[in-house]
Write a structure and sequence with these properties.
Elements (H helix, E strand, L loop, with lengths): L34 E2 L5 E3 L9 E6 L5 E5 L2 E4 L2 E2 L10 E6 L5 E4 L19 E2 L1 H4 L3 E4 L3 E6 L21 E2 L5 E5 L4 E5 L5 E5 L1 E2 L18 H8 L13 E2 L2 E7 L3 E6 L4 E6 L19
Parallel strand pairs: 16-17
Antiparallel strand pairs: 1-2, 3-4, 4-7, 5-6, 5-9, 7-11, 8-10, 12-13, 13-14, 14-15, 18-19, 19-20
Length: 289
Amino acid sequence: MRAAQGKEKSGFEYSGGAYTPQLYPGRHRWGEIHIFDKDGKPILKDAFQGIGHMNGIGIDEHDAIYCMASGHRIVNDKKYDPELRHDLSETIIKVRPGAAKVVTTGRAPVKLPRGSYPKRSKDIGGNQASGGPAWVEGAEWFYGGVGYAGKNASWASGGCCCWNARFDLDRFARTFAPELRHFSIAVLDSAGNLILRIGRYGNVDDGVPLVKEGGLPRSERDSALLRGPPNTRSIGGDEVGLFHGAYLENDTDRRLFIADIGNARLLSVKLGYHATERVALKDVADGTD
């Protein structure tokens, strides 16, 4: 920790040193991932070498790291959307701590010689995530076409557009990722397989909610805004209408919260299963009482 001269807190011990990560040819410098225990002590430094700007990080019970890198997916040396000049989609990546690194052909303090390029297609692209087209060595899986990497747009104030997105990881290592160009939320299992999609294109009055009364008004003046429209139009399926559902938070297998900023609202989506069964446990009191 550090404090401006003359602003030091009395009795507080300021200590620390400069951190310099390991450099290698082709390493992009933007940030690092470090893992700390509950007391703030470092467990592992530089857990995913060479990764740059990310919109969200998660870790599962097996210590695997999930991140949404601010760069588009590349497959067979083609972008996620080859026809799109500025692809602002992002990529979910799963890695093992300390077992993966990013190697870029773009911006790096130490350039990667052309003769050292990996002999395969690049994996991600984007100046913020990886300094340019790059390979991710040691990744377990990728899932592209998600999020919104606004800072990768050269036409947005010279590449400084702060629109972004956030994914979320639940306690079963399932990934909830915003697919903004599809107007949906992708749900992936821990192996990166698509389980289902939530939502479709819709405005504020699209989709019939389970609770038709809507939210909790603070006053009569706010009631119309917080409760939403009195009448909605059914759009079928899960009845979740989205315009720009960029930010997510889950309550494990119970509920998903979506900040649909395109419609200026928050959605609470109930999660369930195709089949459920309740079994009474002998000599265990019913906690619902």
